[in-house]
Fold this sequence. Notes:
- By secondary structure, the chain is α+β, with helices and mostly antiparallel strands.
- β4 (34-36) and β5 (42-44) form a beta hairpin.
- The strands form two sheets. A three-stranded antiparallel sheet has the order 1-2-3, with no helix packed on it. The protein has a two-stranded antiparallel sheet with strand order 4-5.
- It is built from one helix and five strands.
- The protein starts with 5 loop residues before the first strand and ends with a helix.
- It is elongated, with a radius of gyration of 15 Å.
Amino acid sequence: MPIIDRFEGDTAVWEGGSAPRDQLPMAAREGDVLAVDEDGQYYIDLQATQARRQEMANRLHALFKRTMKD
Length: 70
């Protein structure tokens, strides 16, 4: 599943691929995990996106926690 890395003009870019922004949901933003339905349409995988964001928040918290101990 692609994860939107960035937008370059009207193109969404992710590792190993890209797509025109108008082929994505209007609410799509950087960091969203995308999936494709049976019709080949992209949609935001809300569960995977939320899980990924939580994991990144946990990693950031752990990093700062370790830094504060040093």
